[in-house]
Write a structure and sequence with these properties.
The chain is of the alpha/beta class. The chain is built from 13 helices and 18 strands. About 30% of the residues lie in helices and about 25% in strands. The strands form 4 sheets. A 7-stranded parallel beta sheet has the order 5-4-6-3-7-8-9, with helices on both faces. Strands 11, 13, 14, 15, 16, 17 and 18 form a 7-stranded antiparallel beta sheet that branches. α6 packs across α7 and α11 packs across α12. It starts with 5 loop residues before the first strand and ends with a helix. The structure holds guanosine-5'-triphosphate.
Length: about 375
């Protein structure tokens, strides 16, 4: 059987596979970190489970170096609506490894940015098949230095992600000054004095940092009780009504108070000037309530997909993928917003598309990825 056995002590061989729960609020840098660590030889035998919302999800396309043994749980959040799918995904990985289809040494479980750790941890101690075969080794939470102050003030989930972590990785330090970085680290240390706190730039971290090598104290102990006490902070509401084929409503949508998630699909390529004008407009209109926008864009005049990432007030530089990940070459954008929804997205885009195009798609100023 191609499963690695963990030796905890001379009398207690532990056959369970270690799991790193990789979490962090929307856009904190989880996929960037995964992309980096998965290239390391030490990660051989590491399976990845990626959780994302809805059928139009794009995360799995953005983790470029994901191993073949990547499972996608794409129809809800594994801390709530898709919890059954997590067990299915892990058991399927386990059984494939048992059939010697690949070597399985450990698992990284990348959550959605709105996942709360405790309900996921609980599945590892309550699901009888999971608890026999897998054990949480560490909870690693990424904290986006550029947005953390507002995020921690506004979101209970972000707070729970910090307080539930064994290791806090502060990302995007390059976007803040040293005084703000230190202030954030002090705040994190007050919130979670037991956690290791470190800085990570552009996802560059040693892969070993994700696995402690010892089973998580909280996974079997009373600490979970404290964390489970917060589960009721989450509330789930149905998505708002669809405004037609332009916007694909999600079947089941987690909500942190007024949080909404939805996808935008554009069948036709969009002029760069229209697209970037529109994202600038949305950013100035919605600011930090545009919690997350990400996806693949088919820009007029370009053959390759452009990857866009917006996180609250910060729009990161775009980049191109070396190829379209599938035959579907439509623009697919995932939005997570607070206090407004797809009507704003639809009406602002309609308005911009109705305006005369100011510069042609062939204009290098317009077509160059930003
Ligand atoms: N400047 C800067 N940008 C970063 C850093 N780490 C990640 N990013 C950028 O932040 C954006 C979001 O990063 P992702 O890795 O997709 O974040 P994520 O946590 O996986 O996002 P969700 O899964 O949507 O919650 C991307 O444009 C990254 O290139 C960093 O250390 N510095």
């Amino acid at each position: 059987m191609a499963l690695e056995i963990r030796q905890l002590g001379p009398e207690s061989p532990d056959h369970r596979l270690p799991v790193c729960l990789l979490t962090g609020f929307l856009g904190a840098g989880k996929s960037s970190l995964l992309n980096f660590v998965l290239r390391h030889p030490w990660m051989e035998g590491t399976a990845v489970v990626i959780n994302e919302y809805g059928a139009v999800g794009v995360d799995h396309h953005l983790v470029e170096s994901a191993p073949e043994d990547t499972a996608l749980v794409a129809d809800g959040c594994i801390c709530c609506t898709a919890s059954g799918q997590l067990a299915d995904a892990l058991m399927s990985l386990f059984l494939r490894a048992q059939r010697r289809q690949f070597t399985l040494r450990r698992v990284i479980l990348e959550t959605t940015g709105l996942a709360e750790p405790a309900p996921i941890l609980r599945q590892f101690v309550s699901h009888h098949q999971l608890k026999e075969r897998f054990v949480i080794d560490s909870v690693v939470t990424l904290v986006d230095a550029a947005n953390a102050a507002s995020t921690l003030d506004a979101s209970d989930i972000a707070v729970l992600q910090v307080t539930g972590a064994d290791r806090l990785m502060v990302t995007k330090i390059d976007l803040v000054n040293e005084a703000d970085a230190c202030r954030l680290e002090r705040r994190l240390a007050e919130m979670n004095p037991d956690a290791v706190i470190e800085r990570v730039l552009q996802g560059v971290a040693p892969p070993q940092a994700l696995f402690s090598g010892v089973h998580r104290r909280a996974a079997s102990g009373a600490d979970l009780g404290v964390m489970f006490g917060n589960v009721d902070l989450l509330r789930f509401t149905p998505d708002v009504a669809s405004r037609g084929p332009l916007l694909a409503p999600r079947d089941r949508t987690p909500a942190d108070h007024a949080i909404q998630t939805f996808s935008l699909i554009l069948d036709e390529p969009i002029a760069p000037s229209t697209f970037f004008g529109w994202t600038d407009f949305l950013r100035s209109l919605c600011g930090p309530t545009l919690l997350r926008m990400k996806g693949l864009v088919n820009l007029k005049g370009q053959t390759l997909p452009t990857v866009v990432h917006g996180v609250q007030n910060v729009f990161h530089p775009t980049r191109q993928l070396p190829a379209w990940p599938s035959e579907d070459q439509r623009t697919r954008l995932v939005f997570i917003t607070r206090g407004w929804g797809q009507d704003v997205v639809g009406s602002t885009l309609d308005w911009l598309q109705a305006r005369p195009v100011l510069a042609s798609a062939g204009d290098p100023e317009c077509t160059a990825p930003r």
